[in-house]
Amino acid sequence: MNEIDINYPFDPLLVERLATELQLRIGTLPRVEVYYLHLEAYAGDVLQCLRVQPRSLSEISRTVRAAKTMKLTVRGMGHASGKEKVIYADRFTVIVDCCQLADEPRMELVNVHRDGDDKDTPGLKVLAGVTINELMDYMIDHKVELYQSPDMIPGIGTIVGNIVTASPGVYAPVSGALGGCLADEVIAMRVVDSYGNLVQYSDPHKLEQCCANMGTLGVVYDVVLRFREMTSSLVEYDFQTWCKIITHESLKYSFRHNDLTELIYVPYNHLQPEESLRKDWMPFQDEVIVRWTKRLPTIYSEDLDSAPRHRFHIIDPFTGPDQREIVSYPERTPHLLGRAYRVLKSKLRHVSLESQFTPWAMTCLAPPPSPLRMIRFAIETSCSMDPFFKFIKTLLEALMYMIRNEEGEEACHGLNLFMRVNFTGGNRSAKVMGTGSLNPTEAPGRRLIVHITFAHLMRSCSSEDWCDLVSRLTNFTFTFIPQSTLHWKSEWYTLQKLIQHIHEKTAPRTGPLRFQMCRADREASPVFPGVLPTHHPEAMPLGESIEAEH
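^ thats the sequence. predicted structure below, dont judge the formating
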């Protein structure tokens, strides 16, 4: 085969030539295709790279070995990616999309002998490509649950993608979770290394480096998670104004005693039809949905009881308002969202204080009806939560200023936002995120992490309006909250500021990962950007991750 020089001057057909050569070196399967990543922040800007969708372990190994002979970088990706797809991919990247893996079994209960342990540890083994919804169904059928629940806000996602991107969980430390993200619950992991070999890692220190690697290590084939027997949880809904939440002690009490504490905020809900958004809207008078869950004691497995599964939509698809109204008449957005909130409040009142199977209770928010514009921040606060309350005050004032558009003549009617807030403890595996990282001897409850998500319900406003709002929120958060980080961004704006922020947060925490944002040195690290030392002489750099979505 002809050797391809990657330093060749710009060639518009270079990626196609690379795809043809890589296919020759792999063989028949998996098929190599030219993959296009559309960067929404830049109109018409498309990133070209290579992609394969292996259906078995042998196909992953063949791809990695073939890519190594061409000195190409290998990375993973799942259903969707956030900022990582822009930072890591280039024309010389081979994306391994493991969502189509068909190996059996996809999930099973196993016993794992961990390095340094005298006895086996029970765990739930999950194949790369298993979606969050698949896992929920399996847990209900087999009467088990995880100590930390993956977040469900996008409505899509794989379990391995949730782990390697350090997506936040939802459980507070009182629930028994080891940390604030699902990656903290991994007890073993198997990855395909740069030699195409399958290597297992179960040492806790190496797992902390492997789990939330943001794609800098190898291809994750499967993971084993801690689990427990399934329980039921009592789900309670309350409705409080922001003023009451900020000045009352109920939120502090809830975090200390409940497994889950969640805030869901749909703005404009106190506005009356005759009132004006610019003159009369005060976000501190808006109501917030407060959701609490608490596990119920179970003596025998037959005592488990659950009401029928309830999944609620922010905008109910049956009772409305009609989503087409929001798109067609953006000036009516405040009153339509107020009506949607009142419908939602009425429905939630009827299901409050019901017991649900715990996996259902953790995933009752239904995905939005349209492609999601979303931005999520993680901020670190104290257990007194005073820094969080101060942040919310400043944030609501800034949000009011932006939506009222006091710099211009017209209010931003098209910004049909909702906000979601989750509280977790610190994390051990998500060190690259730079926020909430625990010391080895520190308990998860010593640090309180607040995960704040802003999302569009419908894409009715222009991309420029959303870009302006997100840029302001980003600048505001990074300026006023030192212990904060951007965790997810559906569209990549304020690129240089974010890259600088990520560099600052990750530089002192990367350790052996060598967190790199530009293309890796192809001679020093032939396949994967990161290298993790291991006692296996035949398995040096280790696996790369699936940048799946969350």
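Residues 232-495 form a domain with the Vanillyl-alcohol Oxidase; Chain A, domain 3 fold (CATH 3.40.462.10).
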